[in-house]
Amino acid sequence: MVNRDRHDITFEILRKATAGKKKTELMREVGLSSTQAKNYLSILVEKGLLATDEKRLFKTTSKGLEFLEKCEQCPLFKWDR
């Protein structure tokens, strides 16, 4: 597996959660351990980039979608996903 920095992981979580995903789905799809997922998800919720609903699905917020859009426009990053 390729080493990823926290920006890559954050971007991937937000991108995968646009349709709404359970924690275990995100863990599997992004390739995170339970501890890593807990840390990333709690920080992203705290920052307002992710939200949870009554079904306990994580969904990217409008603020998170704006963040993704800005990341994709940044010439310093080459998102080939």
Tell me the series of helices and strands, N- to C-terminal.
Answer: HHHEEH
Count of separate structural domains: 1
Strands ordered across the widest β-sheet: 1-2
Tell me the strand percentage band: 5-15%
**Low-confidence region ranges:** none
Rg? 12 Å
How many helices does DSSP assign? 4
Biggest sheet overview: 2 strands, antiparallel
CATH topology: Arc Repressor Mutant, subunit A
Going by helix content, strand content and strand pairing, the class is: mainly alpha
CATH architecture: Orthogonal Bundle
Q: How far is it from the N-terminal to the C-terminal residue, by CA?
A: 15 Å
State the CATH superfamily name: Winged helix-like DNA-binding domain superfamily/Winged helix DNA-binding domain
CATH class: Mainly Alpha
Work out the number of β strands.
2
| Overall pLDDT metric | 89
Shape: globular
Residues in helix, %: 40-55%
